[in-house]
Amino acid sequence: MRSPVVGGLTTALLALSLTSCSGDRPICYAVDTLKSSVQAIQQIDFGSPSARTELKDGLNAVEDDLAQVKTDAEAEYPFQIEAVERTYGTLQTALSTAIAGPTAATLAAVVAGYRDFIAAVDTMLTTVKADC
Fold this sequence. Notes:
The protein has 132 residues and is mainly α. The protein has one domain (24-129): Up-down Bundle (de novo design (two linked rop proteins)), CATH 1.20.1440. The protein has five helices and no strands. Helix 2 (26-42) runs antiparallel to helix 5. The termini are far apart.
């Protein structure tokens, strides 16, 4: 049986959305790839035994995608990239804390960190979308 905390985490993660971007510039492709990686994390069943591995793999993909976005657009979108990197770091810290000691408070910090990260990614995608 899935705990209410895990169920709440899953619901919160699935409720978040991202704006789409498309275009021929490298940054357009990079942010679309980042969006896909973030959406893949949203599809994880956090009550399944493989959730930790899937989350780790998903976050590795997000980290790689963030590096590509930074390479392609740091000069054009430094504030947006900084916000995404900062919120991603906060999310990583919250996840490490929750893995070390899963409690309602540590899982709530993961949800809050994820919401902030998604908001930063969405802001960046919206900004970049105007140029794609």
